[in-house]
Amino acid sequence: MEPHLESADGDDGGAAKRLETELRETRDRLQASIEEYESGVEELNSTNEELQSMNEELQSTNEELETSKEELQSVNEELQTVNSELLSKMEELDRANTDLKNILDSTQVATIFLDRNMVIRNFTSSATAVFNLIPSDLGRPVTDIVSRLDENGELHKDIRSVLDKGKLVERRVRRADGGAHYLMRMLPYSAGTSGLEGALVTFVDVSKLVEAEAHQKSLVAELNHRVRNVLTIVSAIARQTLAKKRSPADFAGAFMGRIQAMSRTYTLVSREEWGEVALTDILNNELAVNGKQRVTYDGPPVSFRASSALALSLVFHELVTNATKHGALSTPKGRVALRWAMRAASAKALVLTWDENAGRAIKKPSAKGFGLELIERELKGTLGAEIKFNWGARGLKAQITIPADPRRFTLPAGGTKT
Asked: What gap in Å lies between CA 248 and CA 348, rounded to an integer?
């Protein structure tokens, strides 16, 4: 029995040893777990601290973002304000450009804007009358564009001179076809403090001014010619009047009457700038002094050149003077009727009829006086006309025939014909 007991004791001891071993191992594992737990707790604490730090950083970042957002909102508001101001400035600039374009178009001044390299920056529509320009020519050198002027090379030299020297160039130029004259002005184009940027070339149409100058020269030449003629006529009138008059008083009256008639007509043609003068104006001018109320006249509108008007004024002065002294106007009831019309014959002419009615018998003068001789001479010499005198019982009837010639007079189409 005893061996069996020993075996049981041996088994218990082995189990105890095993239990102790397992217990130690378990204790070691537990200690390791505790250490791992403590290490994990430390790591968790460290992680928590890191998370707290990150949270603080995020909060700080969030605050910074809020601040940035406010700053961005402020900047956005400023940008909106600046944008509004820019829009306002752009509208003002558009209006200014529109006003400038309207001014340039309304003045019809041909204008070309050039840069320092003579490249076209802009031009007005009127400039196409001077240069063969189209919208696509912007950005091209003006030297590549054909001008309508008769001095293209000189034009380019002038532009270069303005760009090099920065001084104004102004002179008169003419279109090649002679159809227009321009006052060309080339100015340096300055852009504030940046200095010379290019040139501004303008062409002002002065064709009417050139025509006026030519007309003025013609008038001066005509005036000189007329002055010489006047002196000749005055001298002839003085000689002939002196030869016909018996006393100084008679001479003075007749001579001054003719000189005053000439003076009135010169005033009339000067008022019309030595152009055409209406026949009714010539008559009114003379009859305002001599019996207008007793002379009637009728006929279509007709206008005479200055030289013809001067001759007719002397003719009517002599007819009125003769009627006043010897004819119808020398009696209280006397009247004079003047009529004119174009003759319908093949040889067209203006026919004027001077018809006196004295209201009683008028004796025909025994001799032709200087006045009638002067009438014949002025009509024939200046107007190429002829006059026929017919003395009737009631006074003189004269018919003046003036050949149709635009150098002497003009009559509207469809004028009265006889």
From this structure: 45
